[in-house]
Amino acid sequence: MEDEVDCFFSILLDLDFQRQQASMGSKDSPFSLEAYDRYTEKQPDVDRKVYLWHMHAYSPDNDGNVLRQFQDMISARFGADANVRYGNLALKAAGPHPCAQLEFDFTRTVFADVISWAMFNRPDNLSVLIHPFDDHQAEAHSARAMWLGPPLDLKLEPVQGFDSMVARKVAEGATVNEVLCAFVSPGGRLANRRAAVAGA
């Protein structure tokens, strides 16, 4: 299992962290480090510091067509909103994900809109996971997870590896926001992982 975790994060961990920090995108982007910092500095409560959310739509049948249709629906509804960003489609199990899935990110600004839209528009044959993107991903994918449709069993070892990596980077002097933003900003590590998973 440790090899599986190492394999999942190998693309993420071999990149130079400082170089990634320098390419975090426009300061005006809702996914920039500046946006993270502006929001979290104003929030005294831990539960209100969740700035970014992930949504994963899973096809237990590994049906890429139904996921693409759902992606088109999301794009039609939220395409002009800078607070919603689309990940790519992974057509096979990878990391914690047990089957084909589509991921997208959204900020807390549009949380109610995205959740209520997904609640009423999710195709019946998809299971949808919504979780906070923070430095406790094992907990986010389990105890703090919300599901629309039947919940699936996720492999938590890869996200436990992510949590360990975040803790290590923070111990080396980075802020939690710097580490998280490096994974979601344009050109960041998550974008690189998504490209690698899509090409697999």
CATH class: Alpha Beta
Rg from alpha-carbon coordinates: 16 Å
The structural domain count equals 1
CATH homologous superfamily designation: DOPA-like domains
Q: Work out the strand percent.
A: 15-25%
Mean pLDDT value: 79
CATH topology: Alpha-Beta Plaits
Terminal CA distance reads 20 Å
Following the backbone from N to C, one meets helices and strands in this order, namely HHHEHEEHEHEHHH
- What class, by secondary structure content? alpha+beta
Tell me what the CATH architecture is.
2-Layer Sandwich
How many beta-strand elements? Answer: 5
For the largest sheet, list the strands in their spatial order.
2-3-1-4-5
- Helical residue percent band: 40-55%
Coarse morphology: globular
* pLDDT < 50 stretches: 1-24, 188-200
Query: How many alpha or pi helices?
Result: 9
Largest sheet: 5 strands, antiparallel
Plain-language structure description:
Pfam families: DOPA_dioxygen (PF08883). This is DOPA 4,5-dioxygenase. InterPro entries: DOPA-like_sf, DOPA_dioxygen. By secondary structure, this protein is of the alpha+beta class. The chain has a single domain (2-199), classed as DOPA-like domains (Alpha-Beta Plaits), CATH 3.30.70.1240. It is 46% helix and 16% strand. It has nine helices and five strands, in the order αααβαββαβαβααα. It has a five-stranded antiparallel beta sheet, with helices on both faces. The longest helix has 15 residues, at 64-78. The protein is globular, with a radius of gyration of 16 Å. Residues 1-24 and 188-200 have low confidence and may be disordered.
